Amino acid sequence: MSQAFFIAMSALTLEHISKIYAPRARGMLQALSGTPKNQGFQALNDVSLTVEYGEFFGLLGPNGAGKTTLISILAGLASATSGTASVCGHDVVSQFKQSRRSLGVVPQEIVYDPFFTVRETLRLQSGYFGLRNNDDWIDEILANLGLSDKAETNMRALSGGMKRRVLVAQALVHRPPVIILDEPTAGVDVDLRRTLWEFISRLNKEGHTILLTTHYLEEAEALCGRIAMLKHGHIVALDTTQALLARVGGTDLEDAFVRIMHDDDFTGVTA
Predict the structure, then answer these.
(1) What is the pTM of this model?
(2) Which ranges constitute the DSSP H helices of the chain?
(3) Which portions of the chain are predicted below pLDDT 70?
(4) Which of 11, 72, 126, 224 is an S-S bond match for 209, by CB 3.0 to 4.6 Å?
(5) Are residues 7 and 94 in the same domain?
């Protein structure tokens, strides 16, 4: 697929996405006592968002705002209650194979198979996307993430920070045009953080689209051209980083974020 196609289409599109998680089943005593049935939890409420090809985009919000639910819908791990989502023009439901191939996701949770080495893990991940003889790219990823000397180490023997590096490598192994990083630097050391951002910034300059969620707002301020802020499942702010700072009047993005989250009347969706 040509780069011209990606440029013509948006990298990520969400149109009127809502997500309501099903309520817990009522117990016998609740049913007999006439306790009203729980309507479920609404994680996202009519979210519309477009990320253009080649952007470095920040998705910010407090815990429970709906960030991970939104990412899960894009990745096909959760189904929207209503609305549509697409990756590089491919609907995540009706064109799921194409949308999955176009997307690499680094999750919050550290998950790994304890029976494989780092290299075997990446070869296996390559195989999921039908890629053979991918060792040259695997070697480049390992080098850029400081994992070359751990290539033949079993995943069980790695520290938490090293396991997180492998998660990043797994998301990149099939060279997806869109990369989602869900709090990738949580609990990692300064050296990895610097190495990771140098590598991701290089990929962005080469044309990859990056969607970042993070609680380290200095990272978002330095890296992201545009930012959306989620609060209780709604987008309450969407603009370029500099425009948000100018409008809110904060000294930095962290200050602006705190002001927006505590202002129930703020509406700043413009870009």
Answers:
(1) 0.86
(2) 3-8, 28-33, 67-75, 96-101, 118-128, 135-144, 160-172, 190-205, 217-223, 241-248, 253-261
(3) 1-8, 24-38, 266-271
(4) 11
(5) yes
